[in-house]
Every structure is written in structure tokens, then in C-alpha cells.
Hints:
Pfam families: PDZ_2 (PF13180), Trypsin (PF00089)
Number of domains: 2
Protein name: Serine endoprotease
Number of helices: 4
GO molecular function, one term: serine-type endopeptidase activity
CATH topology of the largest domain: Pdz3 Domain
Keywords: Hydrolase, Protease, Repeat, Serine protease, Signal
Radius of gyration: 19 Å
Amino acid sequence: IQTDAAINRGNSGGALVNLNGELIGINTAILAPDGGNIGIGFAIPSNMVKNLTAQMVEYGQVKRGELGIKGTELNSELAKAMKIDAQRGAFVNEVVPKSSAAKAGIKAGDVIVTINGKAISSFASFRAEIGTLPIGSKMALGIIRDGKPMTLDA
């Protein structure tokens, strides 16, 4: 989360709340040109904190989900070169053998555009979404293959 709330040195880990007093994030850092407290603040979203906290309690560490693909951002140049209609998504360069992705039928050249109905705008958003899912989660992946939309269960 990007915020304009004043974040001072030493208050990372503090609550970021909305006007109703509801926790929406945990303050982590500030980007300030002069090193002060006026600039752009950053916070970890509360839903991510909840997920990470549950993992720490259960496993003693954070375990991130992984699908088993190597990929890149889908941009207009890549979309044009690969003759893909989509302009955003996670482009699959390679599928790790015997991974969840391989078992689900994902192939190199696919573009992942949704996870459980949530739009994926980039490879970074794909990784972030996968990373927030509990280990072993089942998911519906909206993909584009050879110009045709499909859904795969992983």
C-alpha cells in the first residue's frame, strides 16, 4: 500500500488505519528525498499480514505458494511478437516438470490473466497473488492459449 501518512523513523510496524479505525496495513518504510518524514509511505496490506502471521504460528516460518512456472511481464512488444491479443498478464516462458503448473496443463506461451477470478496485470502481480495463497490451495487459472481464453484448475 502506498500512503501519504507521515511515517517517522522507528515506527515501522505501526498500524495504518482508515477513518473508521480499521486496520488496513502495517507501516514499513518511507521514501523521502531529504530522509525525513515527508514523502511516500509504504505499508503491507492487512490481509497479507494476517496470512503471514498464520503461517508463522503454524510453521514457524513463512511458506509461499508456488505454481512452477518461469515467466515474464506481458507487454505490448511481446504480445505483438507472439501474436497474443491480451495486453496484460503473466507470460509463461517455461513450466517446471512435475510441478503443479505441469499437472494443471499450463504450457510455455500461455498467458495467465486471472487467478480465482482476480485479474493478473503483470508477472509481479501473479507472484504476489500466488504468494498469498495457503500452501496446497486449489485455484482456477484464467489463461489465454493460442488466442483462446480457457480456465485450468491447479
